[in-house]
Task: structure prediction
Amino acid sequence: MQEKRPITDWLPITKKEVEKRGWGELDVILVSGDAYVDHPTYGTAVIGRIIESEGFKIAVIPQPNWQDDLRDFKKFGAPKYFFGVTSGCMDTMVNHYTANKRKRSTDSYTPGGKAGFRPDYAVATYTKILKDLYPDIPVLIGGIEASLRRVTHYDYWSDTLKPNILEWSGADLLVYGMGEQPLREVLKLLKKGVPFHQLTMVKQTAYQREADFGVPRNKKWNDIELNSHELCLTDKKAFAANFKHVEQESNKTFANRIIQKVTGKNLIINPPFPTMTEKEIDGSFDLPYTRLPHPKYRNRGAIPSYEMIKFSVNTHRGCFGGCSFCTISAHQGKFIASRSEESILKEVNQITEMEDFKGYLTDLAGPSANMYRMKGIDMDICDKCVSPSCIHPVVCSNLDTSHKPMTELYRKVDEHEKVKKVFIGSGIRYDLLTKSYNKKGDEADMDEYMEQVQTRHVSGRLKVAPEHTAPETLKIMRKPSFDHFKEFKKKYDKIDKKHDLNQPLIPYFISSHPGCEEEDMANLAVETKEMGFKLDQVQDFTPTPMTVATVVYYSGYHPYTLKKMFAPKNERDKRAQHKFFFWYKKENQPWIEERLTKADRPDLIKRLLGDTSHKGNSKPPKWLAEKRKESKGKISHKKRRKR
Result:
């Protein structure tokens, strides 16, 4: 299929492709840390197609070499209006390093999955190069790396508090969140002749200005001033206090403008645009994507991230869960922007026409699979809301949690003559499907959705994310009590047994989360063992910019209460917490018994490892017998030495 398409179906990435279009000077050049895949899942493709749709001449420089003579950055010359810079679909440092700061050996957004094709802190690296080469050309930065680093933030990988990314990259303007609306506004103003440096009133953008020039006035916006970057460097509580305002203003319908002083300048963050309408989000997904990687990569191997999503469909954006360790709402917002059924079914049709499509859709969902079309019943109430979550500590009584639109959509896609099976690969919010938590939800509606998903859309096993079992840790995470997961599992097992499906439920958990003590991990191991789980879908907490949990991790204070809070930070404590996940591995069992003995928790030893007292005729397990024999030998050796 790719061979049949003319090269002009893709946005140009070489000088020859620009010339084929008959273009001379380009209007905008995008620089990206990802390989160029012309698909609506990839931000570079979306932004590039929007720029094209507004009539601008656009080219892309994907994964430029930043270590040679910089020819990649020079190949198109200077654009008429601006350079756009993004690290790609992921923050570079998350892409490059594990939670233990070990360098990853692969990169899912590069042909062949090869690592080493983008620098650390790609947005700043690319921007500095462009500013050196073309000092007079504006640079607009965006994407998740820029978005989540838009104010003073803790950077886990350098273990430092960094200023906003405009300051340390030298960029002129930053678009945060999902960038379609602010980008279109920027492009329309540029077409009208407004100079780039005067783009100070575009919503959902941020820029810096010398403090002596003050802050531009806007009668429609009220301002809120954060603690300065310099104060944050010396006062961790001041840094923590900032985050509450940043999170709340990012998720309001009518937000305030945010100001923060940094090195003699004012950082100015304009309020966000309203949530995209159905027409707007459809317009973004209905652009003329080829849905394919650029032909240039044909001989370099498959792009792993593309292979994962090539037969998947995104139904909506945003997440109202507000989990304290997650960046989805910080970037996409808490209000759900849903596509129309017509737009979704149109994309399904496109996929079924792909030559290597075998009849299986790998995903039909959004960030949280079961939030499609969910929104406030009375939007006036939502307009006044400042809560970062619509379902914590309880499900908001104004939230419509009907699963019917999703159930009906699944059935319609199921009926497509070329679709054999639709799988739901994204995570499902199980708490929205339990009557104990979602008290005002329609139980028949919940059960209908679960039955539809379990009988038609599970690929072998279903993954959900209770994340923890400890009440205090779950409270910090903004997750519900583990009791609700137990209720969900009962419902799940009942449907599984009814239809003889034999599809296991796989729960995800996090260790070393702020607020979590070692004993909490022992309790987690015990509770999940007693439910019949041997955990493998587990991870250590990774501090990423723009989350409550990261603020707690760095500062030791909760940003909403400013009370002190514990967070496991050193490598020994983190490894210890992680070991409890794998209580069933023999090599971990002596260590677990020793730790729980020191904690005076024989009850947990018994529940987790069995009775280790072994009185009467019972024999200790082999590992314990060997440990005791080894200890006895050491004691005898010491006695001999004393003699």
